[in-house]
Automatic annotation (TrEMBL):
Transmembrane segments: none annotated. GO terms for molecular function: nucleic acid binding. This is Transposase. SUPFAM superfamilies: Ribonuclease H-like. Pfam families: DDE_3. The lineage of its organism: Bacteria, Pseudomonadati, Pseudomonadota, Gammaproteobacteria, Oceanospirillales. It comes from Vreelandella aquamarina. Residues 2-131 form the Tc1-like transposase DDE domain.
Length: 151
């Protein structure tokens, strides 16, 4: 749970789980507010990222040009990932790498921060299933139920 407020003397408590599970979200967000995302409950590997990119390319309008901004994570620089770059470029997808240690320059980081600290209800943290349901609800509703104006 990121942050919570409670009255003095009434602590806000959620159960702690000893078997950590995680929900990873990889996303593609346009300045116009279109979101395409891919979730994974296992560790994110190069193959996970490649699957997410292939999913993005399959959903992208083939006539539009897309610039994907990436951080310098190892899976974004691996040999397997680099082998796919020309294929993605043939689908009008161009990759741009951020300077080291500057994730704040990537617009989707604003979305992740907003989801985590403002939009996720405290009930999302009661169980892993609740978390998955709430994250998917927010992602599916992005642009209609919740949105960020980047203009």
């Amino acid at each position: 749970m990121p942050y919570a407020w409670s009255p003095i003397g009434k602590p806000c408590e959620v159960p702690a789980y000893s078997h950590s599970r995680r929900l990873n979200v990889l996303g593609f967000l346009s300045r116009a507010g279109k979101l395409i995302y891919h979730t994974a409950t296992e560790s994110v590997t190069t193959d996970t990222v490649i699957d997410a990119f292939d999913h993005f390319v399959a959903q992208k309008d083939p006539d539009t040009f897309a610039v994907v901004v990436l951080d310098n994570a190892s899976m974004h620089r691996s040999k397997a990932f680099r082998r796919k770059i020309l294929e993605w470029m043939s689908h009008r997808v161009h990759l741009v790498y951020l300077s080291a240690y500057s994730p704040e320059l990537n617009l989707i980081e604003i979305l992740w921060r907003q989801m985590k600290y403002a939009w996720l209800p405290l009930s999302a943290y009661l169980s892993f299933d609740n978390l998955c349901d709430e994250v998917h609800r927010l992602l599916d509703g992005y642009g209609t139920e919740c949105a960020i104006n980047f203009e």
